[in-house]
Amino acid sequence: MSAISEVVQRARAAFNSGRTRQLQFRIQQLEGLRRLIREREKDLVGALAADLHKNEWTAYYEEIVYVLEEIDYMIRKLPEWAADKPVEKSPHTQQDEAYIHSEPLGVVLIIGTWNYPFNLTIQPMVGAITAGNAVVLKPSELSENMASLLAAILPQYLDQDLYPVINGGVAETTEVLKERFDHILYTGGAGVGRVVMMAAAKHLTPVTLELGGKSPCYVDKDCDLDVACRRIAWGKFMNSGQTCVAPDYILCDPSIQSQIVEKLKKSLKEFYGEDAKKSRDYGRIINSRHFQRVMGLLEGQKVAYGGTGDAATRYIAPTILMDVDPQSPVMQEEIFGPVLPIVCVRSLEEAIQLITQREKPLALYIFSPNDKVIKKMIAETSSGGVTANDVIIHITLHSLPYGGVGDSGMGSYHGRKSFETFSHRRSCLVRSLLNEETLRARYPPSPAKMPRH
Amino acid sequence: MDPFADTLQRLREAFVSGRTRPAEFRASQLKGLSRFLRENKQLLQEALAQDLHKSAFEAEVSEISISQNEINLALRNLRAWMKDEKVSKNLATQLDSAFIRKEPFGLVLILSPWNYPLNLSLGPLVGALAAGNCVVLKPSEISKSTEKVLAEVLPRYVDQSCFAVVLGGPQETGRLLEHKFDYIFFTGNPQVGKIVMTAAAKHLTPVTLELGGKNPCYVDDNCDPQTVANRVAFFRCFNAGQTCVAPDYVLCSPEMQARLVPALQSAITRFYGDDPQSSPDLGRIISEKHFQRLRGLLSCGRVVIGGQSDESDLYIAPTVLVDVQETDPVMQEEIFGPILPIVNVRSLGQAIDFINRREKPLALYAFSNSSQVVKRILAQTSSGGFCGNDGFMHLTLASLPFGGVGSSGMGSYHGKFSFDTFSHHRACLLRPPGLEKIYAIRYPPHTPRNLRVLLMAMETRSCSCTLL
């Protein structure tokens, strides 16, 4: 048996031991994770700094804090969520007990990704632990510092058999995907998403796929452009654009394009100074391949701001493109970098058409003071989620499910949805053996009492 | 030539036009389904009789009424289900509007099986239409008579720009699955389930798979054998055993077996007479292939009840087998016929181990007067659904989700669960414009002071919040 198989088998045996069934056990594990975050925060920040040039603010505030909140929330809610839920009964089941019983699925595989390598690996894990599963983690090898750190510190705070970390590249991931799991949650791109789902199909394993796409950002003529541009700049350029729900491109009327460019520039200078390379708060591209990819998208484009990069430090300046052609390469793939194309459209209808001709995105943004505009945009498009008059924040509310649709994904998690995703809802009806007389009518023979046609 | 391209194109265009969005349209589709059932009852009963020798009673109870109930429930609740679902907000989002918008996926494919060819087509169809999707229904070609009614009569009752029935066997289904759908709902066996999911993966299409397995039926020593026998025999033999949630095999002690077997005989005789083959209430096996398969299983263990078969009639007698080994063929596959093997266990613990060694079943049954026993089995096993002290009654409650786990399936439906299955739950947060000062703290440059302020604010918080 391979090393990977052994690890998974051990997790399964640990799950089968039954110790995750006790709510108290799960809570202890969650408390362990909380202690890990508090005690090892410096190490976590260090890894994020090394991988992505994050600092203690961006690390904490854009990544770690959500995991802490999720842990607190789940510890509080677990008894309520885990309890049997009685359901409405029908006339002939009035005397019975009818309820939904939540159970762990078994061994869950979480394949993390590199852009928020702590959050996107651990936040799903929190849900899986809360639901009583064993969890095998496969962090992304691209964020190598976080991957090694997780492998080193998780066993110090959590049950070592139930929550193993498996590190490695494509070969190891392929190996892991041959094993049988009871649920797989994958965060990443659509191409690998397909591979994961096909591997899962061999074992009839349900999957949650958190993918991506080009999240459009429509800016109405009548909105407060100062506010809109500041918020867009904040959401787009955080983590140097490497956020799955970042506004990918702007759609606006040509008459406001220049203003938007100016206000975006203003905000960027406020955030990162004249030279973002010198800002502590500005991230770096994860690796050379992605650096080349993003720089390549600038070819032939009209650069209104930025457009420069430094391969040695994998720095790409905050970049704004104007008058972008929807057919050009920068509009054909998720940018995942600090490049913000502006595509001009002459009406809300044209914007909607452009959006609906493309794959359903993970997020959709509309800036408008006009309720009707917002409602129309939402009603005539589809996306994983929506924020109006801001960006990104819909994913921070744990009562909203976080997930995609179409090519941007399937399934969702966060908060209670995580618990549901990683649980089996078992329908239960418990009857009595003492009421046989009342049930006689259902048995054959079924004579003339049946209405004959 | 792609036989499906035009149909799918037409349905996609209809979806994009927005026709299926208004509640009125969806309600009229559902009313159409209702009229279809009411106006074609005789036709449907005849088709089901031809396909499966289904009695009028079984057709009414397990196909027509159950479908009608789903339609009525959807009609009654449609607008409530369609409404945006408001969600609780935290401190940072108090001023916002936060809700989940239910949206149709688009083009849905429903692949339905032959054993309850009407119910297992209409049930999912109700959910898909109520949720505002356009639907392609591919009924089983094995239940030929019902397939014909569904193909020729059903479309007349619904808007055909948004609904189509396509026909074909495994090859055609394979070709159909090469196309992109926005959701696929499949009912059938796990092997084909894998093929469907693999095809869906190529297009990143979400799926619900209603599969099957061997549903264990534990019979405790502490119970009345005749009551148990009535219930087990009834649910085993319903539709000649061709039910995904039928009790597949019994687990009990040798002592209980000795009392159960005569009770089972008594129940079977009462239900179907001395010559079950002449009872109008006992179904027939769907096809020659399945008949042969089942006939082969009759030689496992030892026959203590029944064991007869008649190829010309595709008839298998209600049969009970004892002295069955775990390795016998009858214990290796889902039986899907009126054959009930009894496997002996010496304790509840042994029964639980036996069950847990195997794939998670679609249903699990436990018979005992002791609620402790029932609860212990529930707690120490897993299955799609569970019923204590009866057969598959749990699926008659629309308030309970119907679906499997592990190799018995993924996803669920019935009632509101159907509507939710066929809807995308879109997270929406609408922030009023302005109020920029509140959010200013989130912007760079991030000073250590800002972080301290924020952390202090968070530590003193009494509820969870993010100051974004």
Automatic annotation (TrEMBL), chain A:
It comes from the Eukaryota. This is Aldehyde dehydrogenase. It catalyses: octanal + NAD(+) + H2O = octanoate + NADH + 2 H(+); an aldehyde + NAD(+) + H2O = a carboxylate + NADH + 2 H(+). Homodimer. Keywords: Cytoplasm, Lipid metabolism, NAD, NADP, Oxidoreductase. Belongs to the aldehyde dehydrogenase family. One of its GO terms (biological process) is lipid metabolic process. GO terms for molecular function: 3-chloroallyl aldehyde dehydrogenase activity; alcohol dehydrogenase (NADP+) activity; benzaldehyde dehydrogenase (NAD+) activity. PANTHER family: ALDEHYDE DEHYDROGENASE, ALDEHYDE DEHYDROGENASE, DIMERIC NADP-PREFERRING. Residues 4-425 form the Aldehyde dehydrogenase domain. One of its GO terms (cellular component) is cytosol. ALDHs play a major role in the detoxification of alcohol-derived acetaldehyde. They are involved in the metabolism of corticosteroids, biogenic amines, neurotransmitters, and lipid peroxidation. Oxidizes medium and long chain aldehydes into non-toxic fatty acids. Preferentially oxidizes aromatic aldehyde substrates. Comprises about 50 percent of corneal epithelial soluble proteins. May play a role in preventing corneal damage caused by ultraviolet light. It is found in: Cytoplasm. InterPro entries: Ald_DH/histidinol_DH, Ald_DH_C, Ald_DH_CS_CYS, Ald_DH_CS_GLU, Ald_DH_N, Aldehyde_DH_dom, Aldehyde_DH_NAD(P). The active site is at 210, 244.
Automatic annotation (TrEMBL), chain B:
One of its GO terms (cellular component) is cytoplasm. GO terms for biological process: aldehyde metabolic process. It comes from the Eukaryota. Residues 12-424 form the Aldehyde dehydrogenase domain. One of its GO terms (molecular function) is 3-chloroallyl aldehyde dehydrogenase activity. The keyword NAD applies. Keywords: NAD, Oxidoreductase. The active site is at 210, 244. It holds the Pfam family Aldedh. Belongs to the aldehyde dehydrogenase family. This is Aldehyde dehydrogenase.
